[in-house]
Design brief:
The chain has helices at 16-20, 54-57, 75-83, 89-105, 107-110, 114-117, and strands at 4-5, 26-27, 42-43, 63-64. It has 122 residues and is mainly alpha-helical. The structure holds iron/sulfur cluster (2 copies). The site of one iron/sulfur cluster (SF4) has 14 residues, from helix 1.
Length: 122
């Protein structure tokens, strides 16, 4: 489980990371089903090659470079990244359920502008 997208992506979802990922392991892309409905984007844990290109590309610092580096408040989204599979509707629903629950359980973080949210991670 390498790189992890966290909650500053929620409300941003600009796909800058998709544009720089050399192995197309971040989904859903804008041209894929479910993009509009997706709460956030997710990194496929087995396809990611740990290149790091997505981290500086993200305008809101949503991406951590390891599970260990991911703050406690974002651990549920580690699970969401690990579950999401673009071609598996059940997996999409399960990951989205975790992301939706995260939003409901963190009104404090969601009230912060996405650009400032990462600084508030605990
Ligand atoms: S670390 Fe590299 S391979 Fe992994 S999601 Fe980011 S850009 Fe893609
Ligand atoms: S660049 Fe950051 S905010 Fe944009 S889609 Fe990727 S993870 Fe989300």
């Amino acid at each position: 489980m390498p790189f992890v997208i966290t909650d500053p992506c929620i409300g941003t979802k600009d796909t800058s990371c998709v544009d720089v990922c050399p192995v197309d392991c971040i989904h859903p892309r804008k041209d894929e089903p479910g993009f509009d409905a997706a709460t956030m984007l997710y990194i496929h844990p087995e396809e990611c090659i740990d290149c790091g290109a997505c981290v500086p590309a993200c305008p809101v610092a949503a991406i951590y470079d390891s599970v260990d580096a991911t703050p406690r408040s974002q651990k549920d989204l580690v699970d969401a990244n690990s579950i999401y599979r673009q071609d598996d509707s059940g997996a999409v629903q399960a990951a989205e359920a975790l992301a939706t629950k995260h939003v409901q359980e963190h009104p404090d973080l969601m009230a912060i502008d996405p650009k400032e949210r990462q600084a508030a991670h605990t």
